Amino acid sequence: MQNKKLIIATVIFLTIAMSASLILIPSANAHPLPGWTFVSYPYLVASPNPVGVGQTVAVVMWIDDPLPGATVTNDIRRHDYTLTITDPTGQNTTNHWDVVTDSTSVQYMQFTPTQVGNYTLSFDYPTQVYSWSGTYQNDTFLGASKSITLVVQQEQIPAPVDSYPLPTEYWTRPIEGQNTYWFTIASNWLASPFVLGAGAGYGIPGAVQLDGSAPNSAHVMWTKPIQYGGVVGGNDTAILGEMYYSGLSYNTRFSNPIIMHGTLFYAEPWGNGATGGDYVAVDLRTGQEQWRINASATGVSLIPSFGYMYSYESPNQHGVLPNGLLIAAQGGGFGGGATTWRAYDARTGVLTTMNITNIPSGTSVAGPSGEILRYTLTNLGTTAAPKYYLTQWNSSRVFGGGSGLSPTGWYGGTVNASLPSAYDWNISLPSLTTSAWSIGTAGQGAIPLISVNDQILLVQGSFGGHPGDYLAVVTTDPANITDISLNSATLGTVSWTQTYQPAPGNNTRAIMDWDVSNGVFVFEDKESLTHYGYSLADGTYLWGPSQLTSDFTLDYNYMAQFLERIAYGKLYVSGYSGILFCYDDKTGDLLWTYGNGGEGNSTLSGFVTPYGRYPVFISTIADGKIYLSTTEHSPNSPLYKDAQFRAVNATDGTELWTIMNYGDQMYGGQAPVADGYLATLNSYDSQIYSFGRGPSSLTVEAPKASIELGKSLVISGTVTDIAAGTKQAEQAARFPNGVPAVSDASQSAWMEYVYMQKPKPTSTTGVSVVISVVDQNGNYRTIGDATSDSSGAFSFLWTPDITGKFTVFANFAGSNSYYPSSAETSFAVDSAPPTPTPAQQISVPSNEMYFAVSTAAIIIAIAIVGAILAIMLKKH
Q: What is the pTM of this model?
């Protein structure tokens, strides 16, 4: 991998150098005969040199200049490079290239020596006559040769650093560029179409985040109001204890949030609208505002629909374009059907000059480099004689791609996005000989049935329905699905076509989701609560009906159907029943359920809800976890108590953590995940909560004065939570000495106490702190551990065993809630004074003895005199 990177870097350098040297080549339109002759200068590099046996070497060879006129769009190239490798025994290996495909005249390869000793590498370029038309036709470019020695040793060259390790401490963006593998924990949430299901309206299944990490704990990083929320107060409300309207169900707050580069973007509501207030950017880890704008004052009156981060690759430039864009799309839904796109600079909130007009309607999906691909199926014939065409429109051909249509750079100017150059291809589909075909979608239209460079499903007709259902109409006609190849080698060909009879029992049937990796798509029959699996390879039946397990609340699921999601090869089904069902999407087998078990697996609500359980709906699937929220269609005010936001292991259904929360839209709620943090709106108080692993702080103290050997001392300190939320006005006032860090097991109730004004829990446990010392002799040893209490304090009693100075180290290893922290102090141990011997206890020096005898005599004399005086007084 590193050798390949070295080669690429070398080629880039050579490309720049050679591009500059082209200026020196004569540019006359013609020159007189005879033809000119050019001297060639050969170059040959093997790296690293020396190298260890069995290690791969990058070999790069080239002639000083590209042939005149060579570009990536023509075939003007140097010919017949030969590289001969002679090993230490004299054995030759020859590599030959008839044509050097790189327009810069650079040829590269990789070579792995198998013997210790000196290898000889010889590069030969024969004389070449310019055979293309133009100024240099029939000119001669002389041959050239060069040889180098490659030293191969037994000792291995140190392996290159692919990446520095993943973080073990609290981290923030920007991520330093050498930490390559941090991409596995970092992520963005660019909304639809980049995150399927993101930003969709009510009744759409939750979003699937395929990148990065997600929180394993209910630890709160910060909270931030999005409007006035919670209990209004006073007696002048229609219902005592009534709450501010939270937007449920059709005026959803916190709709379509976006996360880019560790920044959360969202629209504040205004009046009864989900938007209309300011558009705000805050740090995902701290909640600190970075900017806010009044979108209506920009003259556009549009708020962003999705984020755009295009990965730009050209011979001279590589990387994702900086800052990123927040695209405001006018018209359409789920990223489709828009006619105009405007863009805000994500770093500053400034409205750019970019104005993309005449964007074709269609179905959008994310491209492999961050571009948006939009597919349109059009009948240019008649109903009786259809002529269908399928097109792929590519946003990178319009803006951000460098060589696209944009007249003023990557992000500038007004561009007509309907020009033919904005399309990757336009193909006819003569196999569609009947009318009324459309591009298939699933999940009530939120999920396009399109796999880039793979396949697209086209649908004709309805799969079944009954009167009054807005998803389908009564039909007795069969429906058809045609699978069209999007592979470049077979583009536009029909992979298969199948006919499907209407669902039995007059069920309302729809495709709910698909799993391209497992080759299956899934139907749901609404009224019978059943599922069927069909093959993506040929459209044939695989399994079903797979019916939800019988339960006394199961029928409530009918009230909110078509809310399934597929991830990790599993089909997840949730609803008003309060039970999450998990099926194997290849077989239809029920794997597990969540919500209908005992402690840690129960959603029972008793009399709190009319359903007997708290409804659960999928908000987000990320990092092997399913995040569930509780909502309903049109809740009363006050909202019912003790609804929870839940994190469940996506593999086995184990409950990971819960915390009080009422979702922000019916049948789910927006909960974007990026960089290991999850943000969601809590309708109980209309505040955004950011959850994730936060920083901690540890202090440690020991006696300042020395102690005597053999005596004990107390080592003490504190462990506190220093997430940004702990510095908020309320939290700072309530916890002037800091918010204690607590165990993962205590986290949910503790966060409810700290941020949700709930009673202080009585069973809170702290975190474990390991105490170690380095003694006077330089020995490092662990002497024990202590657990902090609900005030964050810990203490440890220890008796030192030698004299001298001790350095104390206290270490909190971290948890799912906090990153590690540590502190150190020191103390001293002195020798105890010697213990007196028995002889020393009775021996008195002579002078002291004389003093003692004299003193005793004086005392006796005084006593005698006193007695005589007393007798004399009595006689008188």
A: 0.87
CB atoms within 10 A of CB 246: 27
Helix (H) or strand (E) holding 345: strand 340-345
pLDDT value at position 870? 46
Q: For residues 250 and 633, give the distance between their C-alpha atoms in angstroms, rounded to a whole number.
A: 9
Question: ∠ at Cα 561 (556, 563), nearest 5°?
Answer: 120
**In angstroms, rounded to a whole number, what is the distance separating the alpha carbons of residues 807 and 702?**
10
What is the DSSP code (8-state) at residue 242? P
| CA end-to-end span of the chain | 125
Token couple for 863? 């006593």
Q: pLDDT tens digits for 503-521?
A: 888 888 899 999 999 999 9
What dihedral do alpha carbons 182, 185, 186, 192 form, nearest 10°? 140
Q: How far is CA 615 from CA 248, 389, 410, 580, 634, in A?
A: 15, 44, 47, 10, 13
Distance CA 567, CA 562 (A): 16
Distance CA 724, CA 104 (A): 53
DSSP 576: T
Closest alpha carbon to 138 in 22, 24, 37: 37
For 643, phi then psi, to 5°, come to -65, 150
Q: What is the mean pLDDT of the chain?
A: 88
CB 701 within 8 A of CB 288: no
C-alpha distances in Å from residue 841, one per residue of 204, 785, 835, 837: 92, 43, 10, 6
DSSP of 76-100, one letter per residue?
A: ---EEEEEEEE-TTS-EEEEEEEE-
Tokens of 373: 């691909």
CA distance 742 to 787: 10
Q: Both tokens of residue 506?
A: 């007059």
Quick one: tokens of 159?
A: 């392996």
Q: Whose CA is closest to 699, among 760, 747, 741?
A: 741
Domains of the chain and any CATH numbers: 2-153 (2.60.40.1930), 184-691 (no CATH), 696-830 (2.60.40.730)
CB 582 within 8 A of CB 618: no
CA distance 195 to 190: 7
Strand 37-38, strand 140-141: pairing? parallel
The owner of tokens 């309903």 is 632
Q: Which residue has the tokens 């007695």?
A: 867
CA distance 222 to 285: 8
pLDDT at 848: 44
For 856-865, how does the pLDDT look when each residue is reduced to its tens digit (9 = 90+)? 444 444 444 3
- What six digits make up the tokens of 370? 């961050």
Task: For residue 296, give both structure tokens.
Answer: 């209506």
Radius of gyration of the chain (CA): 38
User: What tokens does 191 get?
Assistant: 């909304």
**Cα distances (Å, whole numbers) of residue 864 to 101, 398, 554, 855:** 131, 125, 110, 14
pLDDT tens digits for 444-458?
778 899 999 999 999
**Phi, psi values for residue 554, rounded to 5°:** -60, -35
Backbone angles phi, psi at 23, to 5 degrees: -60, -25
Which contiguous run of DSSP H or E holds residue 521? strand 520-525
3-state secondary structure of 22: helix
C-alpha torsion sign, points 314, 320, 324, 325: positive
Tell me the β-bridge partners of 361.
none
What single string gives the DSSP state of each residue in 362-402? Answer: SEEEE-TTS-EEEEEEEE-S-SSS--EEEEEEEGGGTSSSS
Which residues are CB-neighbours of 657 under 8 A, at least 6 positions away?
216, 217, 218, 646, 647, 744, 747, 748
- Give the span between the Cα atoms of 605 and 641, in whole angstroms: 9
Report d(CA 225, CA 222) in Å as an integer.
10
